[in-house]
Amino acid sequence: MASLSWLLTDVEQRVWLENFAVGPQETGVGAGTAWSIRKSVLHGGLCDGVDFIEVDNGAFRFSLVPTRGMGLWRGDYRGQFVGWRAPIKGPVHPHHVHLTERGGLGWLSGFDEAIVRCGLDWTGGPGNDIAPNNNGTPVQTPHTLHGRIANVPASRVAVEVIPGKVPVLVVTGEVEESSLFLPQFTLRTRISTELGSNVVHIRDEIVNRKSAPAEFELLYHCNFGPPFLEKGAELLVPSRLVAPRDAHAATEIATCGRYGAPTAGYVERCYWYEPVGDAAGNSLAMLRNAAGERAVIMRFSVRQLPCFTQWKNIGPLAEGYVTGLEPGTDYPNAKPFERQQGRVQVIPAGGTYVAEIALEVQDTAAGVAQVAKEIATLQKRAKCKVSKRPLASHTPL
User: Fold this and answer.
1) Greatest CA span in the chain, whole angstroms?
2) For 351, how many CA atoms within 13 A lie in the half-sphere containing its CB?
3) Residue 131 confidence (pLDDT)
4) For residue 135, what pLDDT band results from cuts at 50, 70 and 90?
5) Structural domain includes residue 316
6) 262 or 131: whose pLDDT is higher?
7) What percent of the chain has pLDDT over 70?
8) How many domains does the chain have?
């Protein structure tokens, strides 16, 4: 049987389906497994007008938000909640997110996804860069927190079901981050999962549509709270270097990989990692709970995403008890600093940069132990240096 596909949104063809649903009965694929792909439009509050796609492979259910740059909002694997509880009633329509608010921190008004992309022109905090204006004259250009891509609606969205011994459910999307005279990128994403699987794969292609080379930055802000995050939870990342972002983070460098209970007044901390990959570049990071019986894992390639950021924010539950596992092309500093360090990627004219990540959930002690063994094996490839203070090569000092 050939693959089956449906077009949900296409701006150029003036196609847009408000509601859509497909499963075994409609396709004859995967009979005996209660899988489905459903599209709806949310109404009310900050969610009003948000396109919402729910994918259920029979074991792992997760939701995608085309209106918010094709982010992955939340998931559930066999009763294990995947994501975090932000102090926001989302997913938030970009109409309500004003990026320049609060000194460029407006991005936070819509931030509540499990996986949200930062970029593509900027991934750091609010800051300035030098870029040519419409006359080609270099001028100081302000940027806001984590860039624009997360608040740009997709211009094309499609669904595909691929039959086979293990059928595959696929959602594809295209998001344009473009301006006249400025960078012109297309993000083409393919989000897929096999029936009954504990894994969601994300494959992104970033296309430079301009006739000249273009710098770009990409960071996957992957965010998790309970039941994986709790007192005694631990982050494991095979690394050759771990360093604090600043003096504040340095106060906990000895215990940066371990987490406490929700703590009133806790101020976020960030740590930079240089992850180790296998011979093919494959690496991973795992957040496991205190008992080691459940874990969430992010898999990625250090050839595509050579930098890893840990965001540690263990404030009260109602205020966002969460940690971020964040593979990226560089670190989320201001681009001028990352450029000086040689970490900003360049896509040639008309070229494409490919980045792939996978979200995996383990819900047994044996499964968690097997992933921990995999990490320990990778760690043997390099000795890890832990810096007690910020490094000039990783943090603007």
Assistant:
1) 63
2) 12
3) 85
4) confident
5) yes
6) 262
7) 100
8) 1
To which residue do tokens 């999962």 refer? 193
Q: Which two tokens stand for residue 103?
A: 């000194």
User: HSE on the CB side for 380, CA within 13 Å?
Assistant: 6
Predicted local confidence at residue 134, as pLDDT: 86
Alpha carbons 373 and 281: distance in angstroms, whole number: 17
CB crowding 316-353: b at 16 or more within 10 Å, else e:
eeeebbbbbbbbbbbbbbbbebbbeeebbbebeeeeeb
Q: Give yes or no for a contact between 228 and 85, defined as CB atoms under 8 angstroms apart.
A: no
Write down the residue that tokens 């900050």 correspond to: 46
Give the domain range for residue 347: 4-386
Strand 168-178 relative to strand 156-162, pairing: antiparallel
In this predicted structure, the answer to whether residue 355 has a pLDDT above a threshold of 90 is yes
Give the H/E segment covering residue 27: helix 24-27
pLDDT in tens, 179-216: 998 899 999 999 999 999 999 999 999 999 999 999 99
Residue 394 counted as domain residue: no
- Assess whether the previous peptide bond of 397 is cis (omega < 30° from 0): no
